[in-house]
Amino acid sequence: MKKLFFGVVLTSVLVVPVSFVSAAEGVSTHVEESRAVVKQLHANLKMALVAGMKEGGPTAAIAACNVQAQPITAAASSRRTGLHVGRTSMRLRNSENAPDAWEIRVLEQFEARSSAGEALSTMEYHEVVEQKGDKVFRYMKAIPAGKPCMVCHGELIATDVLKKIRVLYPLDQATGFKPGDLRGAFTISQRLD
User: Fold this and answer.
1) In this predicted model, what pLDDT tens digit does every residue of 7-45 receive, in sequence order?
2) I need a surface site. Which of 77, 88, 96, 125 has the fewest CB within 10 A?
3) Quick check: pTM over 0.70?
4) What angle (nearest 5°) sits at the alpha carbon of residue 72, between those of residues 69 and 75?
5) How far is CA 142 from CA 12, 34, 42, 111, 116, in A?
6) Helix, strand, or coil (residue 46)
7) How many beta carbons lie within 10 A of that of residue 151, not counting itself?
8) Helix, strand, coil percent values for the chain (each to nearest 5)
9) Do 172 and 163 touch, CB atoms closer than 8 A?
10) Max CA pair span of the chain
């Protein structure tokens, strides 16, 4: 079993061991390990957001997200294993997180499943797909909009917060959410040998 180490830059570097195995050992192993990567990534992103909030409230948190979210997410990826980790949404704040066709299909599926009563907090999807002649494991985990998210993503956003969002993200579409809405999803892909 291979070990994959990824770091996250906040104030210091956090190193968390995560292992990925070959496709022959089964997709279920990829699912379990994708869950572990997503859990750690969520914790690291939340840590940066909380630090920003403590430092200077919502406007500082937006600035922290603007500077730190992409590097934190990229740090979860690994060139050695071919693991690619990201975040995406149908309503983007950062255009670098735009979904591909497969992710759009899964996000639409998540919306339908949520409308049918399934909890977003545990919603996920995975499959092995053919991409450019390669078999690729794909995984997504829904991100529900929680009450704390409403400060920067809700229907009623303070004027100073909205102004900061518009400065940092001029093409922002990620407002107007209600608690419990589908905010987006974590996404993982890995080419299988």
Assistant:
1) 223 222 233 333 333 344 568 889 998 999 999 999 999
2) 96
3) yes
4) 145
5) 28, 13, 11, 10, 15
6) helix
7) 16
8) 45, 30, 25
9) no
10) 54
